[in-house]
Amino acid sequence: MEGAERKIAKVPSSDDSCVTFILNDETHTIGQPLHMLINNQPEVEFAGYSVPHILEKKINFRIQTKSQDHLAVDSLRQGLSDFERFWRHTDATFDNAVQRFSNSTTH
Amino acid sequence: MEHFDRLKSRIIVEEHSLTNVTTGHPEERNVLKLDFFKKNFKINVLSLDESRIVFELINIEFSFVNALRRVLLSEVPTMAFDRIVILNNTSVLQDEILAQRIGLCPVKVDPDLFTERTEGTEPSEKDALEFKLHIKCEKGGKRESDRRDVTTADFVWVPLGDQANMFIEGEEPCLVDVESPIVLTKLLPGQEVDLIAQCFKSNGGDHAKFQPVATAWYKPLPQIVLKRRIAGEAARRLQSCFSPGVIDIHVENGEEVARVANPRLDTISRNVFKYDDLSDAVELSMAKDHFIFTVESTGILSPMDLVKRAIRILITKAQRMRHELNKFEDAS
Predict the structure, then answer these.
(1) pLDDT by residue (tens digit) across B286-326?
(2) Are the beta carbons of A91 and B321 separated by less than 8 Å?
(3) Count of CB atoms situated within 10 Å of the CB of B38
(4) Is A56 touching B (CB cutoff 8 A)?
(5) pLDDT tens per residue, range B134-164
(6) What ipTM is given for this predicted complex?
(7) Beta-carbon separation of A80 and B321 below 8 A
(8) Distance separating alpha carbons of residues A82 and A70, to the nearest angstrom
């Protein structure tokens, strides 16, 4: 089935505000920070992830939002976008830190 | 000496438990808010040389720090020996043992120049690196000097295709020296090793030989507060409970008194709880949002390069998933 090849699949549900996504080829590396970020979103009732089987590299990521107006997929998208922005900021901060360190140690 | 005024940013370390792990205070989640993060996140590099970097991250959530560590260990790719064709091996080590040893030797070349190999295709200049090893220990006597060590310095790079033009002189692919070349096997007079070894690109998650770090780790910033005056023999005992440099002794009115000198060096070992008379005298805690991160390289990439690549992998991960999400929505 095509779903097995895709990065993101979805457990079928009739309600778009409560969805379980299957993130293929992902682990706690993205699961943990992503669920912390999404849980912090005001429209999110619940966000959590689990590893269905340790021998299979995938995670089940569940998002439940507070109202039908907010789609779970939008929360996931926002979470991923925030994740990316956190790391871009970390990248720049790291560059500055290394620069400051080399400046302070060169005589 | 550092003092954390806000209780909510410290985890208290007691003899049998950790307390104050979450307070439920909304400010605790500030580090997960992008605006707060952009304004308050700091990195300070504490030390840096060719093989190791130590830096501290302030006002960041632990799951992000852990993500960085996980990526450094298992997702930053390198080249390592993955296929070895043994033409002759009369050394004391069996073929497979020698092959395994060779596989673990770090190969100093920029992994970005290569792509991952697809199963079933012939290795080419784009995804493989080839080395030849042919050493024969000449006939001699039983003297120590007649023997010969086969080391990583004996490998000769064999450029495939156009690879000779890819590298400038002096920067050709080679094996990493760990202070001196790594000994792979030892030959007696008359013994020989003749093999062709190929490197492919993969990451630590596939096999530990591809790991570019030797290792990477972090710890939360420790804090130690002495709740009362500790003097005399007890002061010496207290000093021995912590790593060297954490507690120092100074003389006050002829008595030796303990004071906290450098809590950063502590490993949060909780040894102080061994002594009943000292257990109540010390308050140990660790920060929730302040970490000291160390990256040690195996020699393939510089430690700064490693951190940058790991961050890049995390950014790409999120980008790819968002892209997939959009495609997936179009399909459904």
Answers:
(1) 999 999 999 999 999 999 999 999 999 999 999 999 998 88
(2) no
(3) 13
(4) no
(5) 999 987 777 778 889 999 999 999 999 999 9
(6) 0.93
(7) yes
(8) 17
